[in-house]
Write a structure and sequence with these properties.
Layout: E1 2-8, H1 12-24, E2 30-34, E3 50-51, H2 62-80, E4 85-86, E5 90-94, H3 100-112, E6 119-122, H4 126-129, E7 137-141, E8 145-147, H5 149-162, E9 166-169, E10 173-178, E11 183-187, E12 192-200, H6 206-211, E13 219-231, E14 242-245, E15 257-260, E16 266-269, E17 273-274, H7 288-296, H8 298-306, H9 308-319, H10 321-329, E18 340-353, E19 363-366, E20 370-375, H11 384-396
Parallel strand pairs: 1-2, 1-12, 2-9, 5-14, 12-20
Antiparallel strand pairs: 3-8, 4-8, 5-7, 6-7, 10-11, 11-12, 13-16, 13-17, 13-18, 14-15, 15-16, 19-20
Helix pairs in contact: 1-5, 1-11, 2-11, 9-10
């Protein structure tokens, strides 16, 4: 089978990219390969469904630029396609004096990223937004919202296929062969896809796909599991919007928080623990190969040495509901262990470079026949149409 472009990965970024491509060049033959039997089954389908505003990200970074642009694209798409969403807003709360400088930095970044309606709030004002929350200072961010990204992804796919694109599910890519004028993508079912260009949006396996045609890759995907609880139905009144802590500026995770869900209910979490399997959604999930790959990566060992105290705290909260509850009580003192019921879990594909850096920004690496999305964690879902636009522009230059 011959195609102009093959997109690997049927998550929100892969499908957004395919849609943007076919919208701009409907004459091109484009397909998406997804290894699962349904789209959006991993990072896309297991996140908390937050529409991020661009508050946290360094101005002019890929995250900032794509989140702000993607935010508006996503809302426009949801309105046109009648996808339910809610701009409920969120509060970011400092509970200790040492968090105040970071809170100020976040505020300044938000303004620099065009979020002119964010508002500083004092301790006594927090309860105007969240009556049961407490802290010493905070920010109110009216832009933040909630949506179901699995619904969004399937709508991207529907629009893509309506315009002539093809989606192949159950097709796990196992090899890529390069020739003089094209490339060949081979799947586990022994199907062959000849193509002029590959766009790798494989998420948790994006580094493995990249390694099929690139030696000495400078990054590796390290899987981190985020575990959630849900508030009991009779306790959801405790949360009106979304309640976030001030994040650790040295660690690319936002800390445990409270999130209203578009389908109802409130999630509490996630923590961030090393997963011993790339798709290890349960604490007991283990892959010897995945674990050895992680532990043998020099960059991860440097990360582990640098953040071992933080990592041990995350593991402790993973196995101790009391400790998890205590972390939540910093924001919402009324919460008790009995108020929490088991929720789900997601896996974050976090790229780590050889020097021990947890890559914070989006990472896109181009080669002759492939464009690799090497790092696309949160806010990639919010940014999906913007990332897709960026990737499609990079790709279509090759067809001019």
């Amino acid at each position: 089978m011959e195609y102009d472009i093959v997109v690997i990965g049927g998550g929100v970024v892969g499908m957004a990219t395919a849609l943007r491509l076919i919208e701009q060049r409907p004459n091109l033959k484009i397909c998406v390969l997804e290894k699962e039997v349904k789209l959006a089954q991993h990072q896309t389908g297991n996140n908390s469904g937050v529409i991020h505003s661009g508050l946290y990200y360094k101005p002019n970074s890929l995250k900032a630029l794509n989140c702000v642009r993607g935010y508006n694209m996503l809302l426009d798409f949801a309105q046109k396609e009648n996808i339910p969403y809610e701009l409920c807003g969120k509060v970011v709360i400092a509970t200790r004096p040492d968090e105040l400088p970071t809170l100020e930095t976040i505020y300044e970044r938000g303004l620099a990223n065009g979020l002119t309606k964010i508002k500083k709030i004092k301790a006594e004002e927090i309860k105007q937004y969240e009556p049961h929350a407490t802290g010493i200072a905070g920010l109110f961010v009216p832009y933040t919202g909630i949506i179901d990204y699995e619904v969004v992804t399937n709508k991207y796919a529907e629009k893509f296929m309506q315009q002539g694109g093809l989606v192949f599910i159950g097709e796990k890519v196992i090899d890529i062969k390069l020739y003089n004028n094209n490339a060949e993508v081979i799947t586990a079912s022994q199907k062959s896809f000849q193509t002029k260009l590959i766009i790798n949006c494989a998420g948790l396996f994006s580094d493995k796909i990249a390694a099929l045609n690139k030696d000495n890759l400078h990054y590796k995907i390290i899987p981190f599991r985020g575990e959630y609880y849900k508030l009991r139905a009779d306790k959801t009144y405790l949360v009106k919007t979304l309640i976030y802590p001030v994040p650790d500026p040295n660690f690319p995770f936002l800390g445990v928080h409270f999130t209203k869900m578009i389908g109802g209910g409130v999630e509490a979490g996630p923590n961030a623990v090393l997963a011993f399997r790339r798709e290890g959604y349960k604490k007991t999930d283990f892959s010897l190969q995945d674990t050895l790959e992680t532990l043998s990566w020099a960059g991860f060992r440097k990360v582990a040495f640098k953040y071992w105290k933080t990592g041990m705290g995350e593991f402790y909260r993973s196995f101790s509901k009391a400790a998890f509850t205590k972390a939540l009580q910093r924001l919402l003192p009324e919460i008790q262990e009995d108020d929490l019921v088991d929720g789900g879990a997601g896996i974050r594909a976090q790229a780590c470079d050889k020097t021990g850096g947890l890559i914070d920004d989006f990472l896109i690496v181009e080669d002759r026949f492939i464009i690799n999305v090497g790092n696309a964690p949160s806010p990639a879902a919010t940014s999906s149409l913007s990332i897709g636009q960026t990737l499609s522009e990079m790709a279509l230059k090759r067809f001019e």
